[in-house]
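U., I forgot to send this yesterday:
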Amino acid sequence: MKKAFFLLAILLIIAIPAMAQDTAIDPDVVNTILDVGVIGGLGAIALTELLKRLLKTAGPLSVALSIIVAGGITAAYLLTHGMWTVLNQALYWLVVALAANGIYLFPRSRSG
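Result:
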């Protein structure tokens, strides 16, 4: 419950200034960051998995690594495409980090 409240608070902190500035997230940019990225053709997901295996991380450390990688790749992409602002960095970083960690997948009930 605390995690859900924390996530909601973060989303509101980022969403309210975004609505005031009429900023929209382009899904094509998010998909490009996730799939292709900027570092040798490795996207956020591929680079995160590679680092997780090389560093042999698990649990919360893997999530933290994924969030750091998502932030770095997002910043690099936005900078190289002339789209970097603090608000864009925060919005795209949040979306890329959530997608890279599979948060967009809803839990399914397991039977048996």
